[in-house]
Design goal:
Blueprint (H helix, E strand, L loop, with lengths): L21 H4 L11 H14 L6 E4 L16 E5 L2 H5 L6 E4 L15 E7 L8 H11 E11 L10 H5 L2 H14 L7 E4 L9 E6 L3
Parallel strand pairs: 1-2, 1-4, 2-3, 4-5
Antiparallel strand pairs: 5-7, 6-7
The structure holds S-adenosylmethionine.
The site of S-adenosylmethionine (SAM) has 17 residues, from loops.
Amino acid sequence: MTSTKIDPLAATLFNRLDNAPDLMFYQAPRFVAHIDEPTIDALTNFYREILFDGADVLDLMSSWISHLPEEPALGRVAGLGMNEPELAANPRLDDRTVHDLNTDPVLPYTSDTFDFVFIAVSIQYLVRPIEVFNEITRVLRPGGQVDVATSHRCFPTKAIRAFREKSPKDRMLLIAEYIRQTGMFEEPDMLDRSPQDADPLWLICGTLSI
Ligand SMILES: C[S@@+](CC[C@H](N)C(=O)[O-])C[C@H]1O[C@@H](n2cnc3c(N)ncnc32)[C@H](O)[C@@H]1O
């Protein structure tokens, strides 16, 4: 009997309905929350649990809100996103970079710079995630963490097919696979921190194994 091997990262998973340059879609600022208030609180609480005094953080795919707690006091908070006015309005950022990760997945930061890389409710828009995750391993310090927060809303025309069609569990497994593919992280953790009667919050977390 022959068995069919399923490719967890088949190219068709990354198809999008709108293939126009992302800069067009993100040209106008959107000063909106992409998850409910209790879900934002749950994410902030999660960050509070893992952050430490003086930690340097990269908020990847950032906008006007980073969901970071007031305490502990952080070191540098860098933000990278697609819309300059949104980033300019984000009071938590020390530096701001407009950069399209789908045209250039190379992160514009020196190696061994951050203790944490956070991606909040945005991972569904990456069409070259493995290249981005390889870059995340480069900019993280030894023992650093990547934490991907996901929910169930998206801009459907810009989300990859996997996030339009797969179940929440399978989407989490796909993100865990992005982390695994780098070969640089411990086995990823998957957490469900969904508050009651609000948008869900699913977290996929990887800690560098060196
Ligand atoms: C749903 S918003 C989430 C923003 C923010 N992280 C939050 O939690 O509210 C999606 C974000 O992904 C960013 N983004 C989308 N496509 C991107 C790309 N190709 N390169 C870099 N960032 C991108 C946009 O700038 C936008 O701010």
